[in-house]
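Throughout this review, each integer encodes one residue's backbone shape. One record appears below.

===
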Amino acid sequence: VRTPRIHFCDSLDEMPEEWPETWGGRFVVKPLGGHSSKGVLLLVDGKDIGSGRPVMGRGDVHALYNTSQDSLVRRWSRNLFIVEEMVTSYRGAVPPMDHKFYMFGDTIGGLYIVSLVQGGERAHDSCESWFAADGKTRIDQRGCVIEPGLPGCGGAFCDPKPLFNKNVCAQSQSLARLPDDVWSRLVQAAETLGRSVGVPYRVDLFVS
């Protein structure tokens, strides 16, 4: 399973003043201790596609973090940062859909799909799906467990709010509307990594 190239891993103060040409025009800047996509910059040709703001190096990253309305993001500016290659979808989209597999060994317990929308404020279509013990049979309806006797998910996810794209969630098997052969390879990669780790673990995969 191929992983993105890591260009940089150090403090924000050690980040290059200007982006090196060797990094190419597409990469991701994010705090190592962050979560929930907060503070993540998706840079294409010197512009963050989430906010539309130019980000040409360390000074711009400092400015974005220090002026953030989110206190967590401001605090993370003191963390280590990584800069990694941005994966391009096999369909050419940047960034591609993010498939977050919740693995229990080589068994898929759940899948959370995020599709980021470019331009303006960052928005996304999302879908949470849950599976029976075989790791293949879906037991949810738009992110809600519907099989009697099994625990449900959080209230925010059980109410079909605008966060969810019903067309994405309604797919019976290929949740991200992927061709069957691509979907099979994606699942196989998740199972391979889950088996190798051997403990409850989330595997994030993109189809490049």
User: Anything to note?
Assistant: Helices lie at 58-66, 71-76, 155-158, 166-169, 180-197. The chain has a mean pLDDT of 75.
